[in-house]
Amino acid sequence: MTISKAIFAAVAAALFSVSMSAAAADEVLETRLGALLGQERQALSVVPDSRMAFLTRLPSTQDRGVQTQSGVIYDPNFLLAQPNADGGAQWECLAEALYFEARGETVRGMFAVGEVILNRVDSGDYPDSACAVINQGTGRRYACQFTYTCDGRAEVISEPGAWARVGKVARLLIDGTPRLLTAGATHYHTKAVSPSWAKRFPRTATIGSHYFYRQPTRTASN
Questions:
Q1: How far apart are CA 65 and CA 180, in angstroms?
Q2: Closest CA to 116 of 38, 45, 207
Q3: Number of other CB atoms surrounding residue 134 within 10 Å
Q4: Residue partners of 58: CB distance under 8 A and separation at least 6
Q5: Which backbone phi and psi does 205 adopt, to 5 degrees?
Q6: Interatomic CA distance for residues 105 and 92, integer angstroms
Q7: Confidence (pTM)
Q8: In whole angstroms, what is the distance from residue 111 CA to residue 51 CA?
Q9: CB burial of residue 165 (10 Å; 0-12, 13-18, 19+)
Q10: Mean pLDDT across the stretch 121-132?
Q11: I need a labelling partner for 146 at 20 to 30 A (CA). Which of 22, 92, 130, 177 fits?
């Protein structure tokens, strides 16, 4: 055998070996992928159809902008899917305020009222905790900031379902859900009243039965 024939034979043998190795590797990969997909199908088979439909459906048209920005869908199904919430004093204060101020609102409306409270916490013009913001002025005539804290009635939680819902909203807000609904509002009132400050503050949103406003920025000349 000449040298050229020997080289050709060696190259051919090498190519055949590589081809066989690639085929074997493909077969192993296909087997492993099949096993993984089988496990995935088995896991998905135990998920209830209603839960799978909820996880894979698109949000409503009006909510898709919020969904892409915050991961939160402001509707009852989203809230229902959240675990029961609890927490410390700040969570309890916020949940209580939402219960007495907004439990009859839509989910969006409850989040909006919660935003106002936490926007105040972040502002240098108000106390630096949810409990302090909510109870600011309580006990002084015409000084309370949230009506339920000075209406003379005991704060009794009589609707467990509503309490569970506002508790979840409070938990999500305290855990850092982006506040996208009220454009930094620090005030709100129901459509049934017209406080004097509403004429001076820019309105930022109208959600449910509430108008929302942002307190003007103070300057040295104010």
A1: 10
A2: 207
A3: 24
A4: 64
A5: -165, 155
A6: 19
A7: 0.67
A8: 24
A9: buried
A10: 95
A11: 177
